[in-house]
Amino acid sequence: MNNKEIFIKKGAKKKTGVRKMKKISVFGIVSILVCLILLLSACQSKEASTEEELNINLKDRVSFHPSGIEGNGIISFDTSEIILEVKSQQLEEVKLHMLDKEIKVNVGEESFTGAVALPQEGEIYTVTIEAIDINGKVHTVTMDVAYGEKKAYQLLQKDYQIVEAMNQIEGAVALGWADNKIYGYTSAYSPEKRLVVKELGGAFHDTLITTKEASVSPDGRLAAYYENNALQIKVLGSIEENKVWPIQREDWDNLWNREGSLWSPDSKKLLFWIQHEWDAEYFIADIEKNTVTPIKTTLGQYYSTTALGWADNNNIIFTAVSAAPKDGQEEYGGNYRWDLTAYHVNDNRYIQLSQARDGEYYQGLSLSPQGVLYRYHEEENENQHFGLMDMKGRILWQKPFKGLKMAAMDANGEKLAYLAENPDVLPEEEFLNFILYIEAAGETRPVLKIDAGYEDINTLVWSHEGSQLLLSFQYDHEKGGHRRPGIKSQNYIITNPNW
Known about the structure:
- The protein is mainly β and 499 residues long.
- Among the domains are: 57-147, Immunoglobulin-like (Sandwich), CATH 2.60.40.1220; 211-295.
- It contains 1 helix and 39 strands.
- The strands form 9 sheets. A 6-stranded mixed sheet has the order 1-6-9-10-4-3, with no helix packed on it. A 5-stranded antiparallel sheet has the order 11-36-35-34-33, with no helix packed on it. The protein has a 4-stranded antiparallel sheet with strand order 2-5-8-7, with no helix packed on it.
- The longest helix has 28 residues, at 26-53.
């Protein structure tokens, strides 16, 4: 079909009356002619000057209401009715074209606007905007628009790519990498969630393991989980019997108990624990030797630890919480400072890396061969910083950074990814927008904006070779509140062809 156009011209002249001219002198006629010549010369000079000054980027003048989400060159909207606006400074005429659409355009004091209807969900429509400036120059831009379900993210850089990772199973949550696969749960919150493994671009493998907490070894061969008051180690895809280590605790089913496990990089050892209300019991399982060894994770005045992970096959990093001030004068039970600590597996030695003063807090975020990525802040969340510390406690770099949520560095130490609060969102809003920044090749850029609550970020982790970034979060498309029926799991792999 032929495209239909609506042509709008600004500044149409009004009709004016004509007066009878009176007799005037020769001197008056000459004066009028001189004035006209001077006026014409000034107008031409102004017009020539204006032609030199005009520098119009038409695309920058186009906006949509409501604003859409741009990805892969397509602007997507969660409504079928949108308003297209073109700012009118230095523009005299505008034409709008859209396939099979006849659009009425309104002229305002500051812009041209047109109501665009997108009748079919999922179909892509091309909108062409043609504008003529005050010098008669024509400017043209085309935009592809579509109507569909509102997305939970906005891609901010054209050279990055984002693909779904585990969204084929509704509610599935991706947790990490297992060799060249990803693993996760069939549900974010259900106690009956099962552990599943997915090949990239391939099928799901149901491990048939139903548990509250599980992890898969880096080589993708073993799964660790808790069942019947015991740690179970299962060889995936095999009929071999599980390795079982009973853990006898009278308060195993206590409401405050939480279990967890972390594999060593070589998949030969497993750190696992029972988290109580105020402290935790930690153990190391040696898979080859078939032994379990409890480890001591108390250090001086520190009463509680949180495991961050294995820095290498010999060092496990914790965030420790102090039980008393450094002078020891007050009673135990306070939250006086946090420090980064390391447990050396081979010689059963537990050391302190950071040296926080009372009112200072170091929190481990992620590990790499270069050291520990950490967040630092003072009381009342003041003086927030983001940094990297090596295994001897030396700060390699530290910089101010407010609103940091999560960070990850690849195994080669070449790429850094971190999630931070969007500074344009008000602090009291329950659903904060987060921005994913990626630092690579010496350049830091905002790559993705996601729509999630503060507690809804699940996973941010690089693949073993460092070419893919796994991101998982919960998205409330109905904005009904945290963990309400509107919550949907979002799992994506982010890549860049230049990596």
